[in-house]
Amino acid sequence: MVETRFDKIVVRSKLPTPFASAEAFGAGAGRALQRTGAVMANVADKALVEIDRQKQKDAVNKGMQFENSFDKLRREKVNSDYLTRKGQAALGTTAAWEKDAEEWYNQQKELVTNDYDQKILDEIYRRRNGATLDTLTRFEAQEKERYYEENTANRLKSALDDALANYKDDRLVAQAYNSGLAALRVNYADRPDLLSAKEKAYKSDFYKTQTLRRADDDANAAAAYYQQHKAQIAGSEHQAIEKLIEKSKQFQAELPSKMLEKQVKAADMQVKISQYENQRDFDKETAGMDDSGKLRYLRKNEGQYSGDWFKAKQKALLSAKGITAETRAETAQEILLDITMLDKNNEVDYLNGAQKVLTKIENEYAEGRLSPTDRKTLTAQVYREQSKQVDYLKTNEDDAVWWRLGDFTYKDANEYIEENSSSPGNNSKLLLDYFRKINDGGKYDNKQKRVILSNIVNKQKQADLLAAVNGNSAERMKMPEIGTVVSGYRYKGGNVNDRKSWEKI
């Protein structure tokens, strides 16, 4: 019975009480407490197990996160970059990945919260990184081999190219050959069987390409070179090389005639192109002209066109105008008769008539009725006689009759020219120019004649003086007086042909 705050009640204990004594009671209570403690410990253990199970579950999920992150890194770095590199560019990819993987591991380590996370991270890193390193190691070794192969192949190609470029120089050919062998022996020294095969292939290619290059220029020399090195060229190449040498011999034997034929064809083509361009340009410039205008333009610009085309075009235009070789001959005969009819006993009449004949020659030539040869011949004939008549003109005093005493005669004009001309060799031409001017149909008194002659002489003097000032040849020029002013320059004295002898005013 237990006394409570309100009453006394009877309590029945479930504890075993084999003895009713106090000792027995205490022992029973102790056992009960022991059992209670065991139950409590069991509950605590169960709680710990549950917590541990949750940690393991969380670690598994975090492991999947690690896996996904690692796969992403591998795709970005390995699949999309390192494994796409070739040859020399692939060297160092393994070391680069090791650095990437280590950085990734350190970043993921910051997410670790317990031993389970760490264990899973380590396992993933070991397993996945190991497989990646294995892949990259094999890949890099393969690409390193490719790099060596490519590097060696490029060196061999360079050796072949150098030898081809200098095939006429035996020293340079040997130098190129040895450089190729050296490259092979550096890269394949540790693999003697492969080195032997590579050297054999290289020598075959070297002597083959040399033979073919030499055959381009001298097939006989190439044949001798081929026989000298035939044993080092692959047997499978012999037939093709020998056929090519024979073909080159035949080609080179026929080459001179072929070259000539080619040159003829090229020349023919060039002629056709030139003719086309001539016709195109001529049509453009003469659009709207009649046949006479076209003929005049053609002759004026003869130098722009090829000779054959010019002759053909001229013949076509003359034919269109009804002009033939026969009609041209008739025109030449007519002009020759005009020259014959000139009065050689009267220089004034002759010179006047000769000027008309010269004008007729130019007009007939312009119309195409006179050939260039006839024009040249007839003009020269007039000029020869004209020169004689000018000499007669120098002594002409027909105007000095008693009722016109004091007239300015041709003799007077000649004396004036001789006294004032700066080019004695041109005196006859100056007198002829004067004659033509005062006989141009106008009426001139003595004063006007003197002015005309003075202008002609001064014009010649200015031309000669300007030539001297500009440093051109003026050997025929008379020495001017010091202080003479011409065209803005004053003569100071000294060599008239020296520009320093003149000063600009």
Structure description:
This protein is mainly alpha-helical. 71% of the residues lie in helices and 2% in strands. A three-stranded antiparallel beta sheet has the order 3-4-5. The chain has a two-stranded antiparallel sheet with strand order 1-2. Strand 1 (2-3) and strand 2 form a beta hairpin. Helix 1 packs antiparallel against helix 2, helix 6 (219-229) packs antiparallel against helix 7 and helix 8 runs antiparallel to helix 9. The protein starts with a strand and ends with a strand.
Topology:
Blueprint: E1 2-3, E2 8-9, H1 22-79, H2 93-109, H3 115-165, H4 170-187, H5 192-217, H6 219-229, H7 235-285, H8 291-300, H9 307-320, H10 325-340, H11 347-366, H12 372-393, H13 410-420, H14 427-438, H15 446-469, E3 485-486, E4 489-491, E5 502-504
Antiparallel strand pairs: 1-2, 3-4, 4-5
